[in-house]
Design goal:
The complex is a heterodimer of chains A (about 300) and B (about 230).
Chain A: H1 2-20, H2 22-59, E1 61-66, H3 72-76, H4 79-83, E2 88-94, H5 96-106, H6 113-117, E3 127-132, H7 138-146, E4 151-155, H8 158-200, H9 202-211, H10 215-254, H11 270-296
Chain B: E1 2-10, E2 16-25, E3 30-34, H1 41-48, E4 56-61, E5 64-65, H2 74-78, E6 81-85, H3 96-105, H4 111-124, H5 140-153, E7 158-162, H6 170-185, E8 189-194, H7 197-202, E9 206-211, E10 214-219
Parallel strand pairs in B: 3-8, 3-9, 6-7, 7-8
Antiparallel strand pairs in B: 1-2, 1-4, 4-5, 9-10
Helix pairs in contact in B: 3-5, 4-5, 5-6
The chains are: A alpha+beta (about 300), B alpha/beta (about 230).
Chain lengths: ~300, ~230
């Protein structure tokens, strides 16, 4: 029972303390908001790229052509060797006759459809359609398959997939560096805010200790103050992020250049985003206050 | 009960504040601790409240052996004590009522316990109609009564009063001493540190005199004799 009275006390004292040195609290919340928005923006970009990559991966394949001197049996025997190549998810053998039919079907609606359908099967080669797991290794996989005896040439376009991978990796790296820097600054500001709180309340602290307050009881309000700062920052950042995301979605949907991209609707993301923001805000706030009171409140 | 056995205390700057002090205060006693500035009175209080550790000897405070007390137990030892200071040390931005509830909250008292205990203590110190006042709206004597109420509110076994009348005129000082005596009669052990010879001599209590870090006299029903240490 006593614990619940204490939590009420910690909360009210935490709130009071935030407004006692409002400017520092404001600075701390602003830093948390900035940190979370940058983290959120990069994460949302990465999430969207991940989805695009997922789509590409589902369609992703390249063709590995079989040496024309190989018989059908020899050609079909290559399947197990291709399947053994790392990053190969699945392999489908296609005869040149089937390839000719598929080709004609693909261009059936073209104005020169007749021309395509009349191509003889001999123009085509037996081939394997190779699906991959990781788009970041397209070139390495193609090279490995090419090295198999009996494979003579390929048809692949790794540039698009690898471009996405590069953008995703850059976004992740930049985000990680920025987040680390901003987290450090946020921790520093929260730490200073809490230190200021311990200084302004030093008489109260002395009286509490004299009355027999435990260390946990003396520290409680400062921990809650840090947690509240982190939580305020998280909620504010969430709403800012929502606004920014919707603006970007509108821009993409209305602009011609980006219409190839499809953006994940915010309604699919908001709960995860809020959870992550609240978690990070709480952790940063708690860490900032814990380090402050450990160092400067020897109780 | 308090027991100091051959206590030595030396500060970091090398000052030897106590040189083998022995003192025993039983439950329910009223003791004046007298002595000149720098004699070691404040050091004894700091030792009893666990603010500092002795460099030698043993201290027992209300069942706690302060020589091997764990840091986590110090707050619980302090709950057996109530401390009153010369400068009152009230929280200016809190009302009288809030100053007392603050002290009770610090030890995890429930709102129900607070609601029951605070009016009783305010009544005991004669401030039952001044709970909503701020400290700066009260006289010095009244502020010291609030400080006494705060010391009492958690029902300690012992009250330590460090120069409780140092900032008060003789009439208010007399009133405060009578109040402390009344509280003592209700069963709370009282240790009063003071310089005020006339006040000590007016009450026929046990007087422990300390000088240069040593107890120089300890008499029940005693007087503040040494003119030089006034």
């Amino acid at each position: 029972m006593k614990r619940s009275y204490n939590i009420g006390y910690y909360l009210s004292e935490g709130f009071r303390s935030i407004f006692t040195h409002g400017l520092m609290s404001f600075a701390a919340v602003c830093m948390i908001v900035a940190c979370l928005i940058i983290m959120g923006s990069f994460s949302l970009v990465a999430l969207n790229l991940e989805r695009e990559l997922g789509k590409l991966e589902r369609d992703n394949q390249f063709l590995a052509f079989v040496d024309e001197s190989y018989t059908r049996e020899q050609a079909m025997a290559l399947q197990s060797a291709i399947e053994a190549v790392p990053n190969v998810a699945s392999v489908t053998f296609e005869t040149k006759e089937q390839a000719q039919i598929n080709y004609a079907e693909k261009y059936a609606s073209d104005e020169n459809a007749g021309l395509y359908s009349e191509l003889p099967a001999e123009v085509f080669r037996d081939r394997y359609s190779v699906h991959m797991t990781d788009l970041g290794q397209v070139q390495a996989t193609v090279d490995a398959v090419e090295r198999i005896e009996g494979i003579d040439g390929h048809q692949a376009a790794p540039e698009v997939a690898e471009g996405f991978v590069v953008v995703r990796n850059v976004a992740t790296a930049v985000a990680a560096i920025l987040i680390a820097m901003l987290m450090g600054i946020s921790l520093f500001i929260i730490n200073n805010t809490i230190q200021l709180g311990t200084f302004t309340r030093r008489e109260e602290i002395a009286i509490m200790k004299m009355c027999g307050a435990t260390n946990g009881f003396v520290r409680g309000p400062f921990i809650f103050e840090g947690m509240l700062l982190g939580l305020f920052g998280a909620v504010l950042a969430f709403f800012c992020q929502w606004g920014i995301y919707e603006l970007i979605v509108r821009a993409i949907n209305s602009g011609g250049t980006f219409q190839l991209l499809t953006v994940i609707p915010f309604r699919e993301l908001w709960l995860r985003l809020l959870g992550v923001f609240a978690g990070v805000g709480l952790v940063v706030g708690t860490l900032g206050s814990v380090t402050a009171i450990r160092k400067f409140l020897q109780v | 009960m308090i027991r100091l056995l051959d206590i030595h205390a030396t500060y970091d700057n090398g000052t030897r504040a106590l040189k083998g002090v022995n003192l025993r205060i039983d439950d329910g006693e009223f003791v004046f601790l007298v002595g000149p500035s720098g004699s070691g009175k404040s050091t004894i209080i700091k030792l009893i409240t666990g603010e500092i550790q002795p460099t030698g000897g043993r201290i027992m405070v209300n069942g706690y052996n302060l020589g091997d007390i764990r840091p986590g137990q110090v707050p619980y030892m302090r709950r057996t004590l109530g401390v009153i200071f010369q400068d009152f040390r009230l929280i200016e931005k809190k009302t009288v009522w809030e100053n007392l509830t603050f002290a009770m909250r610090a030890v995890g008292a429930s709102p129900r316990e607070i609601k029951k205990r605070v009016p009783y203590v305010l009544d005991l110190v004669g401030l039952n109609y001044k709970g909503d006042r701020y400290p700066n709206q009260l006289s010095g004597g009244e502020q010291q009564r609030v400080a006494i109420a705060r010391a009492l509110v958690n029902n300690p076994q012992m009250i330590i009063a460090d120069e409780p009348t140092g900032n008060l005129d003789p009439t208010r000082s007399q009133e405060i001493m009578l109040l402390l005596e009344k509280i003592n009669e209700l069963g709370t052990t009282m240790l009063v540190v003071t310089h005020e010879k006339e006040l000590v001599n007016r009450f026929s209590k046990r007087v422990v005199a300390i000088e240069n870090g040593r107890v120089i006299s300890d008499e029940t029903g005693g007087y503040y004799k040494n003119e030089e240490i006034i």
